[in-house]
Structures are given as structure tokens and as C-alpha cells.
Design a protein that fits this description.
With about 220 residues, this protein is α/β, with parallel strands linked by helices. Helix content is about 35%, strand content about 15%. The protein folds into two domains: about 40 residues, no CATH class; about 160 residues.
Length: about 220
């Protein structure tokens, strides 16, 4: 049955639209991409998972500090966190130090658009920490498209210079872009990294250096 539905979503959608009352389905969802059929008719589907850690003991949920939620559950999550850190490395997320009124999220890379409309991100101080390379700064720009208040963490020229002995040559096939949501300084750094094919992976940055930067 599941295979039949998967192969005939278009015609099934037309039949269901003609048969069901408007109040029985989400008529505002019209496309079939991104599980549109399932969302339109209230069917379960395999959702992306969001993993997060609570960095303040006073915010724990039933004593739990490490949670993995479906995307829809995450978007409805209500937690009194003032700050949210988004990182792109699982080890970095697991080792992230305790911080008052804060949580840390294991990011989604280029799929940051999935984080749109998450309740726990609305009106919060948001910090993005990705690899210090063209991809990392591109993701930062994309995230700011949805959350303009996002600040970068350890993604600056100072950090690059401090850890220059750990920078690697990482050729990229990507075309240099104009990233409208980066600051002027971030744009210059993006150009430097792109032209030099440079990368500083976030897990290379020392724990002590991170802690000093968290005096926010």
C-alpha cells in the first residue's frame, strides 16, 4: 500500500481534494515536494531529527539534558532559553560547555531553512558556529535570511589568524557568491577563504579559546 501511495500521489491528491471536505485537510499546502502530500492530508512521514543539549541545569526537561526531536516537535518546543548556539559538528555539540540560559543545537548544514518558525528560536540571541570556510559562511548568510539577529561565533579573521597553523588547503568546486546577509568584514573573509581554498574546522579550535569567547 505504501508503495502504491508513493507512486500515485498526484492522482490520489486530486481524488482526495474532490472527495474530502475543505476542513479535513491542509488546503494551503499545494505542492507534493518535501512531503507535501503527507502534510496536506495529515499522514505520518519520516522527518528530519534535531538534536540539542540543554546547557543550563535550571532549564532541563524532566531532568533530561540531551534531546533528539522530530522537526515538528522541535518547532513546537517551548524552553526558556535566552541564547541558542547552533554548531555543525557533533563532537563540538557534545563537548559544548555549560552556559546560563542557553541550549546548543546540532545544525543541519545547508538545510537551515528547516529551522524556520521554530518557537525556541524566535526572539532569542542566536549564535552560529560552523567551519571557517566558504561553506560555513554561506550557511551563516542563509540562516540570517530567516533570523537576522544571528551572530557568528569564532568565524572571524582573528580566529583564523590565531589557529593558522591548523588551517588546511581545501579546494572547492563552488562558485564564489555574493552573500547579502554577511557583514562587510565577513564578506572580505569569505573572499579570502574562497580564493585561498582555506578551511579551519571548528573541532580544531581549542576548548579554552571557546570558553573565553563565551563571555557574552
Amino acid at each position: 500500500m505504501a508503495k502504491f501511495i508513493e507512486q500515485h500521489k498526484s492522482i490520489l491528491s486530486e481524488l482526495l481534494t474532490q472527495t474530502l471536505a475543505d476542513s479535513s485537510y491542509q488546503s494551503d499546502i499545494t505542492g507534493l515536494k518535501n512531503n507535501g502530500f503527507e502534510r496536506r492530508y495529515g499522514l505520518r512521514y519520516d522527518q528530519p531529527l534535531i538534536r540539542l543539549r540543554i546547557l543550563d541545569a535550571s532549564l532541563t526537561i524532566h531532568s533530561l539534558t540531551d534531546l533528539t526531536l522530530t522537526l515538528s516537535e522541535f518547532k513546537q518546543l517551548k524552553i526558556a532559553a535566552k541564547r541558542v548556539f547552533i554548531v555543525e559538528n557533533k563532537v563540538t555539540m557534545l563537548a559544548f560547555p555549560d552556559h546560563p540560559e542557553a541550549i546548543v543545537i546540532f545544525g543541519l548544514g545547508y538545510a537551515v531553512n528547516l529551522l524556520v518558525d521554530a518557537q525556541c528560536l524566535q526572539g532569542r540571541e542566536l549564535y552560529y558556529w560552523g567551519d571557517l570556510d566558504p561553506d560555513g559562511l554561506t550557511i551563516l548568510s542563509r540562516l540570517r535570511q530567516y533570523y537576522p539577529q544571528v551572530k557568528s561565533l569564532l568565524m572571524d579573521r582573528k580566529t583564523l589568524e590565531h589557529f593558522k597553523h591548523l588551517v588546511v588547503h581545501a579546494p572547492t568546486q563552488s562558485i564564489e557568491k555574493e552573500l547579502q546577509y554577511l557583514t562587510e568584514e565577513e564578506c572580505l573573509l569569505y573572499q579570502k577563504l574562497h580564493h585561498g581554498s582555506l578551511r579551519l574546522e571548528q573541532e580544531r579550535i581549542s576548548f579554552n579559546y571557546l570558553q573565553k569567547s563565551l563571555a557574552i
